[in-house]
Design goal:
Elements: H1 11-20, H2 27-37, E1 42-45, H3 52-62, E2 73-77, H4 80-93, E3 101-104, H5 110-118, E4 123-127, H6 128-136, E5 147-151, H7 153-158, H8 162-171, E6 177-182, H9 187-196, E7 201-204, H10 207-210, E8 215-221, H11 227-238, E9 243-246, H12 250-262, E10 267-270, H13 276-287, E11 293-296, H14 298-301, E12 311-314, H15 321-328, E13 338-344, H16 349-359, E14 364-365, H17 382-390, H18 395-400, H19 406-411, E15 425-430, H20 440-450, E16 458-463, E17 468-473, H21 474-484, E18 488-489, E19 492-493, E20 496-498
Parallel strand pairs: 1-6, 1-7, 2-4, 2-5, 3-4, 5-6, 8-13, 8-14, 9-11, 9-12, 10-11, 12-13
Antiparallel strand pairs: 15-17, 15-20, 16-17, 18-19
């Protein structure tokens, strides 16, 4: 399926999507929309940024009856920020439909919201506490509700809302269609699904496929007493356009925010002890690029969907690998690349290694931008490498657009373009050299032990200050690339590529 029309959505909805610039459904949309249009209950295990709002919102809007003034659908969210975000999305999708989407949440007049709900609210998007308030006042009646969505269900559990969620589900008709979306699936959420959903379809989009591949990850090892000073050094070196700095506690968040501002950095804090008005002000400032740094707890930042976050910094290690993936997914959005930097104390090294194993990624030691080899080739898949060899640039191409890194390599006395040594040999480029503590013996060890390449197939290793060139048998090159590209040597991530030419 290549378009939203192929999924069975009606023309008024597709027209709104066209105007919004939506071209192809995301993986979760392509899987979820046909099942929901067919009427099935659904469990979607996916995180923010996957397109899940459209996944549940478009089928919901498809079957609303504009002539029926009752509340036909409710969407429960854990936070005010997510409530507003979902409401805005649903209203944009319903641009050409005669339906009314109302948001209800704490921090504003309950009387005004009650009046809007009473006045033809086809869809009510609500935080749990405010919905319970409106139900107790008689302003919101759920007897006509045919669609119920629980968005970020695991966060509702963390915030202690799960009992109220169950009360709300019991007030809805038994013949409703229920959709549950959650980044993780802890046992209480699984039990809720088993108790209140009928034979649900389960769709799971794994975090590592969603976020990690597009994000450059690094760690900074530092003693606990020096963390703040080191963070400031990293921020000044990276100069992020916008960054979210995650802390584990509300007190730690407020303390770090004060420390950063005292040192002259523009930052804002976001945590649960702030008033709703304060939180709104922080969010507006960050979304409008008035504040480059947001220091936040996991709960406060849940549901944030800001496209231009260039960096995520884990000032405190997350409690588990799933939270790590969810955090760093705040950057690298909408096809952009991003950087995730995690601070670890010497005692926490084992935890970062566990994250590497769980997420199946390699996290190298952080280096300042001036020391990173920006011209180093990005890792390529096997078919891309073959295509690169088959479609070698012509002399005219090279004249029009010189290969990246040529000047830097020439400055170090490295061979220029033309990396085929002949005699059946192939020349590989490695993005590390003596400056990274790499020696010829390290390279030969990595090739023989890591890539299982016979010693006689390795003909020459030339270690320069910032690069290394390896001359080896052509039939061993692909093995070296597949096994070593993206791994770590002496604690630093290495990239391998065919030498330019």
């Amino acid at each position: 399926m290549t378009s939203f029309r192929d999924l069975g959505l009606k023309e008024d909805i597709c027209r709104a999507l066209d105007e919004l610039g939506y071209e192809e459904p995301s993986p979760i949309q392509a899987k979820a929309i046909p099942e929901l249009l067919a009427g099935y209950d659904m469990i979607g295990q996916a995180q923010t940024g996957t397109g899940k709002t459209a996944a549940f919102g478009l089928p919901l809007l498809q079957y609303l009856d504009p002539a029926d003034d009752e509340t036909q659908a409710v969407v429960l969210t854990p936070t005010r920020e997510l409530c507003i975000q979902v409401t805005q999305a649903l209203r944009s999708y319903a641009e050409h439909l005669d339906v009314n989407v109302v948001a209800v949440f704490g921090g504003t007049s309950v009387r005004d919201q009650a009046a809007r709900v009473r006045s033809k609210a086809h869809v009510v998007v609500a935080t749990v506490g405010r919905m319970m308030d409106l139900i107790s006042r008689g302003a919101l009646v759920l007897t006509g509700t045919r669609y119920v969505v629980l968005d970020e269900a695991d966060e509702m559990l963390d915030l202690g809302f799960i009992e109220d969620v169950e009360r709300i589900l019991r007030m809805c008709p038994s013949g409703r269609q229920t959709m549950l979306f959650s980044a993780t699936m802890p046992p209480p959420i699984a039990r809720l699904a088993e108790s209140y959903m009928y034979d649900p379809v389960t769709i799971s989009i794994t975090p590592k496929k969603l976020t990690v591949d597009a994000i450059e990850q690094a760690y900074v090892e530092v003693d606990a007493k020096r963390k703040t000073d080191r963070l400031i050094e990293v921020l000044r070196a990276e100069e992020p356009e916008q960054a979210i700095v995650f802390c584990r506690t509300k007190i730690g968040t407020a303390r770090l925010d004060r420390a950063l501002r005292d040192r002259g950095l523009q930052s804002k804090a976001l945590h649960g002890d702030m008033s709703q008005g304060q939180r709104d002000g922080v969010m507006i400032s960050f979304k409008e690029h008035k504040s480059p740094l947001l220091v936040a707890t996991d709960v406060a930042a849940r549901g944030l969907d800001i496209d231009h976050v260039t960096h995520v910094i884990n000032y405190d290690l997350p409690n588990n690998s799933e939270i790590y993936v969810h955090r760093i997914g705040r950057t690298g959005r909408v096809g952009r690349t991003g950087r995730a930097i995690t601070f670890v104390t010497p005692k926490e090294r084992g935890e970062i290694e566990q994250i590497e194993r769980d997420v199946k990624t390699s996290i190298g030691e952080w280096e300042p931008p001036e020391e990173r080899l920006d011209h180093a080739p990005r890792p390529k898949r096997r078919h891309e490498r073959r295509r690169a060899r088959e479609e070698a640039p012509t002399a005219a191409d090279a004249a029009d657009e010189p290969a990246e890194g040529t000047a830097d390599r020439a400055a170090e006395g490295a061979p220029g373009p033309g990396g085929e040594p002949g005699n059946g040999h192939v020349k590989l480029f490695i993005n590390r050299g003596s400056r990274s503590g790499i020696e010829e013996g390290d390279i030969r060890w990595a090739l023989s032990e890591g890539a299982v390449i016979p010693g006689e197939a390795i003909h020459d290793v030339r270690v320069l200050e910032r690069f290394t060139f390896v001359d080896l048998d052509g039939d061993q090159a692909e093995k070296a690339l597949d096994r070593l590209d993206g791994t770590k040597l002496k604690g630093k991530q290495i990239r391998l590529e065919y030498a330019n030419g």
